[in-house]
Amino acid sequence: MKKICVIGLGYIGLPTASVLASKGFQVHGVDVNKQAVELINKGKIHIYEPDLDTLVKEVVENKKLVAATVPEEADIYILAVPTPFKENHKPDLTYVKQATKAIVPYIKPGNLVILESTSPVGTTEKIAEWILEECNDLTVGNEENRIYISHCPERVLPGHILRELVENDRIIGGIDKESTDKTVEFYKMFVTGKVLQTSSRTAELAKLTENSFRDVNIAFANELSMICDTLGVNVWELIDLANHHPRVNILQPGPGVGGHCIAVDPWFIVDAVPNQSPLIHTARKINDFKPHYVVNKVKELTKNIDKPRIACLGLSFKANIDDLRESPAVEIVKELSYTFTEDLYIVEPHINKLPSVLEELNMHLLNVEQAIKDANIILVLVDHDCFKLIEKSSLANKIVVDTRGILLQETNEIEKVLV
Ligand code: SAJ
Q1: For residues 156 and 170, what is the distance between their CA atoms, to the nearest angstrom?
Q2: Domain contains 210
């Protein structure tokens, strides 16, 4: 079995490293976060993903996965580091470049380097350049001392990562045919889905396209929700009815689009080809506007209330996870705090500490029962399963602003607002 070095032990890297280790590969995982490395080597994890704790414990105990802060020689290097954007929505490739430079001293002829991070078109070719400019003895041609470089974008859905890592179809694009072939051979060793071959540039754009497709479709749902709010129509009922058409499948509106992928990746297309991407750009703007719409709605509703006290249900960017990255719920709570400093009751059952940006604003976490009891406005921001179990009688005489459409069952005492 080959030795694998995975750079980046976050939401993608750690599950990938663990799955590979569980399939019998010897895996050396690398992260700059010393605390995460120490935790992993104790068989524990620093992120939440269902069943990942059990898997990491197992592969660390049987010594198939070892974490460290520096790479080691391996046959295959997998880069799974973040690719955020900068202030101006330009892609920030700092982490990819750092990860590449970190493995350079260890790369030998015959090695395979795989970029899994979602990246702008052309990044895999840049990795080849960065490696070759530091290693005079390596090539990417058909020569004796060649190395292989490919892009295989991760496509897993947080909350279902361990299953999707194995079952999803994968797109593989090498910088040349030999790189593609070698990478396909590797993924076929642990993926049960189809392993599809293309060029590195097409693989990069395919991943950006998938997330842009979702962003555009969520923007459509969010635009509908604002249209419905103005026209006095229940958007959830509307979408449900429209989706009965055999060729209509509208997604769900929400408080905005969060996470490190869908709210980020479309910008990589817009940045590269602004004149050709007005639809993708507009969708981004609609989804980014939605949190402000929700804040304005809440402010409008509180005008007639003597002492508004708002229970904010959920902070994560989507249901049943602890991930707050780019979360519209956090943005909404932050914005509301400028008006309702003392009167926001924050509920997020998946975390036990508020992010510093909210802690600095003197906010505290409450349990859901207490928050609902103390509040007169209930603002649903995340559709966590536990919120669906909220006793409807506890909402009597309160205003419910439901951005996720989960507290909709008919009870006449609840004044419902759907945004
Ligand atoms: N959302 C809605 N309405 C919907 C669906 C989602 O408002 O109908 C919101 C969510 O609440 C969340 C955001 O969109 O704030 C993104 O959530 P998501 O579940 O759509 O996607 P992510 O970011 O968790 O994962 C996506 C997935 N991509 C696609 O479904 C095309 C996943 O497969 C990718 O691997 C992942 O991005 C990634 O890493 O790129």
Answers
A1: 10
A2: no
